[in-house]
Structure formats: C-alpha cells, structure tokens
Amino acid sequence: MTGIIAAMASLGMLFPSTPLGIPSGGRAITLADYDRHGHPVTEAACQYWRRWKHLLADHAVDQAPGIPGHKLATNDGWHVTRTECAQALRAYTAAGRHPEVFGRALVPFLRVAARHDGFRVH
After folding, report:
1. Own/partner pairs for 76-80, CB < 8 Å, 24+ apart?
2. Out of 41, 91, 107, 112, which residue is the most buried by the measure of CB atoms under 10 Å away?
3. Alpha carbon separation from 109 to 25, 33, 88 (Å, rounded)
4. Which domain holds residue 6?
C-alpha cells in the first residue's frame, strides 16, 4: 500500500493528513461525553470536536484535494467518501499518467466508489 499511497500523492490524488487519535489525557471519548443531541459536553469531547473540524477544514472540498492520506495509511475502518474518490479521479485524469503500481483495478474501483458511497478501509 505504501507504493500506491506514494503514487497517489505524486499525482495529487491524496494529501498528507494525520488521524485524530485520542484527544487528551489518554482517555477514549464515549457517549457520556455528549448530550442527547450529540453535542460535546466534556472538555475532552470539545477538544476532539475542534480537532475534527480542523481536519475537515484542511480537506477543502471545494479545492479538490483528494483523499486524506491517513485514511489509506491504516486499516482502521476509515470512510473514504464519494467526494474524496471523485476528487482523486479528477487529479488522476489531470495528471495524464497511470503508475504501474495502480495495476488495472484501482482506478475502476475508485470510479465505482465515486458513484456510490465511497468505501471503507479495513
């Protein structure tokens, strides 16, 4: 996967990013950290929410940056959205080349994912 990630980055199909992780004190966030409407109520949940919003802001959907790199770097069940797949495909098309490491299946897979609900990384 490392070679695929490097090739995708070189084509502008993904951008460097860091997963959120546990926000503070080494304590995992639970449902008790949120009110019944899903709003954060503890400081740990608020920190996590701020970091999450920052990560989304870095994504810059309107600027077509592609897939956040951390989503492909681990098999933690990340959701690569249909929008991210479409952005990656636009970058691939604009680059005008097909790295050998992609094989024959990666681009068709992304095309299907872009038409549906993306995919999960496991």
Report:
1. 76/19, 76/121, 77/120, 77/121, 77/122, 78/19, 78/120, 78/121, 79/118, 79/119, 79/120, 80/113, 80/118, 80/119, 80/120, 80/121
2. 91
3. 40, 37, 12
4. 2-121
pTM listed for this prediction: 0.70
Higher pLDDT, 18 or 90: 90
| pLDDT value for 73 | 87
Q: Are 118 and 85 a contacting pair, CB within 8 Å?
A: yes
67-68 and 119-121 beta bridge pairing: unpaired
The DSSP output letter for 74 is S
Count of domains for the chain: 1
Cβ neighbours around 82 below 10 Å, total = 16
